[in-house]
TrEMBL record:
Pfam families attached to this UniProt entry: FlgM
InterPro entries per UniProt: Anti-sigma-28_factor_FlgM_sf, FlgM_C
Domain (Anti-sigma-28 factor FlgM C-terminal) ranges: 40-101
Protein name: Anti-sigma-28 factor FlgM
Amino acid sequence: MDISIDSSVDSIRNSYKNQTVSDAAERKNLLGCSKERQFDEVIITSNSRQIEEKKIAEELTRRVLSEVNIPTPETKIEDLKQRVAEGSYQVDIDRLVDKILLLRGEQADE
């Protein structure tokens, strides 16, 4: 099977070879000028917005955990039991919705 190479492909390959040779020569000159070897360096950083968002999330987590760890006083528990038994306990719908939405937001992050 014969494969013919178009002259344009040859010219592209030759220009690539010439560029590679000239790049190598240029690198040799640069290395010859300085006694240190030069290496590429990659620096990975977060942008300031990501850092700020992480700080806010950590602060909110700390606050929520501190609220969760506060024990409920026995008097409050007894009061709630009595109000439920009497039928006078009313659910604060707005507060309940806030708690549900907060819980859903935590589950979405997992």
